[in-house]
Design goal:
The chain is mainly alpha-helical. It folds into 2 domains: 1-49; 69-177, Helix Hairpins. Helices cover 79% and strands 8% of the residues.
């Protein structure tokens, strides 16, 4: 387990000390997020006249709203990732099937070679089929690489969203403790 870190940050014009297992950079991001939210609300007409308790409640509600929106977006990304996983599984299955077809075509090509004189026209058909299968295999391999890249992007987005979710949960917890 990593060591507990502390960092002094400015939130709403007040210096605060934050502690936790996150980096100082993370604490500064949290403070910047809070300051942005406070700034957004401060620009709203009538906000400055509200009691402090109402201001805190509005800020908490807005952050909670951001949290649930981020969580929903993470769920959408997760569903998209599952769909991509299924597509990749289907493509792998198709790839295996195509490889089996290529192996079969190659075997038939060898058999046809031994009877070349009598089945030369059949051999041409198999060679054409083999070329088409190899071309399709190349296309599938390119598509597979593209999908694997997209899966990595989605995993990175998911990790980012999970980190953001933890940040928001911590902010909400911190705000609720106050």
């Amino acid at each position: 387990m990593s060591a507990k870190n502390t960092a002094q940050v400015i939130i709403g014009g007040k210096i605060m000390t934050l502690a936790g297992y996150e980096s100082e950079e993370y604490f500064q991001k949290v403070a910047a997020y809070m300051n942005n939210k406070i700034s957004e609300f401060s620009q709203l007409p009538g906000y400055s006249r509200q009691p402090m308790e109402t201001k805190h409640m509005l800020l908490s509600l807005n952050i909670t709203d951001d949290y649930f929106k981020a969580k929903k977006q993470a769920e959408v990304f997760e569903q998209d990732l599952q769909q991509k996983d299924q597509e990749m599984y289907d493509l792998k299955h198709e790839l295996v099937t195509l490889r089996m077809q290529i192996e079969d075509a190659t075997r038939r090509s060898s058999d046809a070679e031994s009877e070349r004189a009598s089945q030369e026209s059949r051999l041409k058909e198999i060679e054409n089929e083999d070329a088409a299968l190899k071309s399709r295999l190349g296309e599938l391999e390119d598509e597979k690489a593209s999908l694997e890249s997209r899966v990595k992007e989605l995993e990175n987005e998911k990790a980012s969203l999970e980190g953001r979710t933890r940040e928001l949960e911590k902010e909400v917890d911190d705000l609720l403790k106050k």
